[in-house]
Amino acid sequence: MMQNSVHNPAITAHGHLSVRAVLLAGVALLLAGCATAQPDGGLGLLQASATADLGKQVEKITSEDQAGSAKSRVDAFLKKPLSADTAVQIALWNNRGLQASFNELGIADALRIQASLPPNPRISIARTTASLALEIERQISGSIFALATLPARTEIAKDKFRSAQLRTLESVLKLAADTRRQYYRVRR
Known about the structure:
This protein has 188 residues and is mostly helical. Helix content is 64%, strand content 10%.
């Protein structure tokens, strides 16, 4: 824990200015290294793979409008004769388990971001009175261990996110293969 107190005789009025400058520089440095959420929630890999490997579209349904749009596309496909490719596309749009996998991917992305953030400092101000004197103590503390392990925790979180992406991609490809297999099994 780092502590800074007004009572410390080594800290003078000039010392407060340097502590403030160091804190501002530290905050700027930490903010520069913060991870941000991926705009697609990590689905870019899945969408590219589905398009390249399957020739199909995958999308995460996040609103009632998107759910209605997906349902109307599925209904339009079901009005026509069903082919193996159509059955796969319907399964990719209409599978709740796959949507749950997409949500898990979003959670993994949020955990990746959280792990890359530095720990919050704790700030406290205390007022004590002894006899006729009033003393004010200011304290800023933070975990040096958490700061020291930040790069390693960030890398671990990135690896976990990448694993979640690959598991979700596996779910997409497995669903497509299972759907195609069931289509041909029923058509026999």
